[in-house]
Amino acid sequence: MAEIDFLIVGAGSAGSVLADRLSASGKHRVLVLEAGCSDNRFFVHMPLGYGKLFYNKAVNWAYETDPDPGLGGNRDYWPRGKILGGSSSINAMVWIRGHRADYDEWAAVGGADWGWDSALAAYRAIEDNQAGADAWRGQGGPLFISANQQGLHPLVRNYLDACGAAGLPETPDFNGLQQEGAGIYQMTIKGGRRNSAARAFLRPALRRPNLELRLHSHVTRVLFEVNRAVGVEVARGGLREVIRAREVILAGGAINSPQLLQLSGIGPGADLAALGLPVLVDNPQVGGNLNDHQGLNYTYRMKVPTYNDILRPWWGKLAVGLQYLLTGRGVLSKSINHAGGFFRTSPDLARPNMQLYMQAFSTLIPKAGERPLLTPDPFSGLSIGLSNCRPTSRGWLKVRSDDPFAPPQIVGNAYSTDHDVAEMLAAVKFIRKIAAQGPMAKVIAEELRPGPEVTSDADLITDFRLRSGTVYHPSCTCRMGDVVDNRLAVKGVQGLRVCDASAFPNLIAGNTNAPSILMGWKGAEIILADQMG
């Protein structure tokens, strides 16, 4: 390949979009370096197969946090995609943009380019929404979004009716006029297969001669001449090489991007110097402001069959497996989360602060080496989960040594503010309110977790501390305004940008795959505009 114009580190949600958009004109040479492997794996493409990927280090960075007092002293497990498509190849495929007010907050930091009107226009250009185009949805874009209206479990109707009886009416589109309400989740699933960012954006773009992808290429540091990034050092196949480029763009996500900045001398100066690392830019915000959603499930034994009854026995596995292989349909062609919702824990709040997840099966009994989505509990079970949308707790991450292959120290600080504890306490009580409504109460045999004996506020708090964990949305560790400017350029150096969830000005209220893809889309616009200017 001729001289590289744009070198992208990471082929995940944002990186795949960047590769597509930056190479589209044919004028620029683009190289994408991905530390992980190809996504040509059966359980990647089968939507419910992601349980098999949950602990698989062949496709997953499999991070762990430090013991967290907010989680009862437990370590939290943070899977992140180490594969073509990044975490969009191992996630639950829920497509949520977030609340428009989230982007008003982005605009307050980054200007109108990052505000709601600009974000909405970009989302409508990105999407090929099965539900059709309207004032909010797009059609004809590169990313097919399933409306997910067919083949849902019958208990979805019970759940939606119970939410309505509890005061949370049904909403037809969480990405439309109103986020608040209960409803069906749209999915990044196409033709019964996961529609990852790699499938939608990167693979079609790789037909272009000016775009190259290298897998199993672990970037160990960014190289500088004075204060300008001129390329990267890459470990591949036991060898190290230097690759030069006019511009380097980090798209490794909320863990890998700040880790690489720190390894390259950009971060908390005293900490880097203590590890023998160079200090090019002393910025304590690199790896700081770690923001994540925390969640847990309330689980019930049911009086009626759930997916447990289909997926647990061998004959059920055989039946759904044949159905999927022959038709691309059935339970294996969907996510764990068929329905969900957004609600406020207080009517005084201007927008929802909690997210719901309805799952027509349960996985209380663990299975070694995987998340047991394909081998659920041996009884009819159902789970209603939730996560906080706007936590005020903040964590951080730092490299532990100068070893680029060592995982960083991750401190989550979950539930470290009274605000977050009070919100979650109110939220778990609302789950019980939903379950107590007639449409759900008539089909529930008993509450299994936490159990009917857990009633006092103190016991409910103890329970959710012990059972909560990440819902896999870490963000803001290279936050816009602190680490990068509104052009995504790293402060204090030239020729280096960060374009992924780590650059979010705040954590979006909802699943983070959509805004990560948006970050790649908008980031490419900005990068190309700067190239022209």
Task: Name the features.
533 residues, 20% strand, FAD/NAD(P)-binding domain, 14 helices, Cholesterol Oxidase, domain 2, 5-stranded parallel beta sheet, 25 strands, 2 domains, alpha/beta, 7-stranded antiparallel beta sheet
Strand-pairing-aware structural class = alpha/beta
pLDDT < 50 stretches = none
CATH architecture of the largest domain: 3-Layer(bba) Sandwich
Provide the residue-averaged pLDDT.
97
Secondary structure tally, helices: 14
Please report the total strand number as a whole number. 25
Shape from CA axes?
A: globular
Fold-level CATH name of the largest domain: FAD/NAD(P)-binding domain
- Beta-strand residue fraction: 15-25%
Q: Output the radius of gyration.
A: 22 Å
The first-to-last residue Cα distance is 25 Å
Major sheet, described briefly?
7 strands, antiparallel
How many separate domains make up the residues?
Answer: 2
CATH superfamily of the largest domain: FAD/NAD(P)-binding domain
CATH class of the largest domain: Alpha Beta
- Helix % is 25-40%
